[in-house]
Amino acid sequence: MTASGTATVRAHANIALAKYWGKADVVKNLPAVPSLSLTLDGMRTTTRVTFDPGLSADELELGGAPQLGKPLARATKLLNEVRALAGVSTFARIHSHNDFPTASGLASSASGFAALALAAVSALELPLSRDRVSALARAASASAARSLYGGYVELGASAESAARVAPPEHWPLCMLVAVTSEAAKDTGSTDGMQHTARTSPYYSSWVSDAPRLFAEVKAAVLAKDFERLAVAAEQSALAMHASMLAASPALIYFRPATLAVIEAVRAARRSGTPACFTIDAGPHVKVLVEPASAESLRRALSGVEGVLRVLESAPGPDAARVSAQLPELDP
Ligand code: PMV
């Protein structure tokens, strides 16, 4: 059956406070460990999907540039699942825009696949729950399951879809993102996880301790206990990186500026500023801070050598449909 329809969706990036790294099932893309993230208001992907019977293949444009190869193949795989659910064979045109650097460890795949899943489902008017859309996004990129929801969000070990832990207003912390490079990373997270699982003697320790760190992070978020959150979130990030550092050859995402920012955050916390850091599969450092201390810390981090700029974000909302005419997609 052919179908036509279009929808535009905005989804927000999320940053894990308890990290996901490793797959329980590579084919189904199920995570080996539970994770908990904060969705960010200030980092967004806007995506329009148009199913058009006139197309002979899917088309993907990212930030105005046509994409082929792996990015297009990953988008097509997600669209194939949506087409199968809808019982249609029509190809689609995808226009997508990130308002932050793409594929550099800034969670662009999370907001990207969350936006694509919801836009495709909406364009075909499929009556799916948010939970089902989260599962579609998760099959493309596990962290994307979490970007369907705003606020604090969890994705259990081997879970099909994410679930809300608390809404954005529960604890309006501020996230500063110290950007240390505009380049795309060398090793994507899927390859990095497989490599770590295959070659790192610390991978099994990471997988066995991650549930404890997740439980600590979740309890701290629910109790709004900053010090408890800081200790557990930093240990989760560093334990994940320790498993990568022990891989063969080592997977090192840290740059000199990454360590310099970590040092600045530790110094700030020692002198009483409620702040903690986390690092994903990239060189940037994400810093969680109480809003009252955000401006002074932002200035301090901007002065660290190697920091290009500092983005600032509050907790963000659910992924949602938006009006079709948008300046970022229709300049
Ligand atoms: O969903 P992926 O394949 O992009 O993996 C994300 C992995 C980390 O960002 C490093 C951690 C996380 O939980 O988001």
What are the SSEs and their pairings?
Elements (H helix, E strand, L loop, with lengths): L4 E14 L4 E3 L4 E2 L3 E17 L7 E4 L2 E3 L1 H18 L5 E7 L9 H16 L6 H11 L1 H5 L5 E4 L7 E4 L7 E6 L9 H11 L3 H21 L2 H20 L10 H15 L4 E4 L6 E5 L4 H9 L6 E5 L6 E2 L10
Parallel strand pairs: 5-7
Antiparallel strand pairs: 1-4, 1-14, 2-3, 4-7, 4-8, 5-6, 8-9, 10-12, 10-13, 11-12
Helix pairs in contact: 1-2, 1-3, 2-3, 6-7
Bound molecules: (3R)-3-hydroxy-3-methyl-5-(phosphonooxy)pentanoic acid.
The site of (3R)-3-hydroxy-3-methyl-5-(phosphonooxy)pentanoic acid has 13 residues, from helix 4 and helix 5.
Protein described:
The chain is an alpha+beta fold and 331 residues long. The chain is built from 9 helices and 14 strands. The chain has helices spanning 69-86, 108-123, 130-140, 142-146, 189-199, 203-223, 226-245, 256-270, 294-302; strands spanning 5-18, 23-25, 30-31, 35-51, 59-62, 65-67, 92-98, 152-155, 163-166, 174-179, 275-278, 285-289, 309-313, 320-321. Strands 1, 4, 5, 6, 7, 8, 9 and 14 form an 8-stranded mixed β-sheet that branches. The chain has a 4-stranded antiparallel β-sheet with strand order 11-12-10-13. Strands 2-3 form a two-stranded antiparallel ribbon. β5 (59-62) and β6 (65-67) form a beta hairpin. α1 (69-86) runs antiparallel to α3, α2 packs across α3 (130-140) and α6 (203-223) runs antiparallel to α7 (226-245). The protein starts with a strand and ends in a 10-residue tail after the last strand. The mean pLDDT is 95.
